[in-house]
Amino acid sequence: MYKKVLVTGANGMLGQDLCPILEDNGYEVVETDINNLDITNAKMVEDVLANEQPDIVIHCAAYTNVDKAEEDLETARLINAKGTENIAKVCGEKNITLVYISTDYVFDGNGKEPYKPTDKTSPLNNYGLTKWEGEEAVRKYCHKYYITRTSWLYGIHGKNFVETMLSLADKPELKVVDDQIGCPTWTIELSDGIVKLLNGEDYGTYHVCGSGQTSWYGFAKQIFDEAGLTVNLKPCSTDEFPRPAKRPHYSVMDNKGICRNWEIALKDYLKLRFEV
Predict the structure, then answer these.
(1) Would residue 2 show up in a list of annotated catalytic residues for this protein?
(2) Which own/partner pairs from 221-225 qualify as long-range (CB within 8 Å, at least 24 positions apart)?
């Protein structure tokens, strides 16, 4: 059935890949960002959704500066929790399907097996906390929703770990933490995963991330290997690189095969990137 999709945060790293993929799959896409939809303004949210009348809202807009959120919980909460609540309330009232992009940082990282969507959440940092609060707002106000937790996101249209590593490749020595384990995810993989959910999966919470697992060091090594770069790369511990926000040591998520292996996706990303 032909559907109209409104995307928040359409100018972000995910949104810029997601919108064309939605269009390729036959959706009519309404792109919004801070300039035409301030999610923290409840009246504006109500007016825009009433005017556009979408069948689906994909809520990508978020406060994503993990470390800065430690000193500015108020802003992170305003955007990630209150902003999401504003969207969720209207979607619930108007029977609109809501897709909410969440994070692996809702987990504390003390697990030993890949986290399932039903596993207990316990965020270590303010960013994870406010994204979890957003999840709770979606569950409270919406009848039709997909909460999609993703992790270690990278894409061609934004600042990310892959681009950071490539920019540092000429350093005499490069140290990368080897004791945080997770699932690298390309924005294209996440976008394709969202389309899969919309095309027939039951409503609920899903993990939409790269299959498999690695450390940041392992991720960096794979980036340089695939790019054909010789780099003096050394593993180090989290303690050697203290950051304002605590990170989970283990945030691997069970994605039920919804996305491809992270290494295969990275290979395709780098091929595309160097072609561009």
Answers:
(1) no
(2) 222/263, 222/266, 223/162, 223/165, 223/166, 223/266, 223/270, 224/165, 224/169
At 178 the pLDDT is: 96
Contact 155/14 with Cβ under 8 angstroms?
yes
Q: Which of 27, 63, 127, 154 is catalytic?
A: 127
Q: Which two tokens stand for residue 70?
A: 């430690």
Q: Find the range with the poorest average confidence among 51-55, 69-73, 272-276.
A: 272-276
Asked if the model's pLDDT at residue 205 lies above 90, the reply is yes
**Length of the chain (residues):** 276
pLDDT value at 276 more than 80: no
Q: What is the pLDDT of residues 64-95, one digit of tens each?
A: 999 999 999 999 999 999 999 999 999 999 99
Q: What are the backbone dihedrals phi and psi of residue 100, each rounded to the nearest 5 degrees, phi first?
A: -115, 125
Give the residue among 96, 183, 200 at the shortest CA–CA distance from 138. Answer: 96
Provide, rounded to the nearest whole percent, the portion of the chain with pLDDT above 70: 99
As beta bridge partners, residue 115 has 253
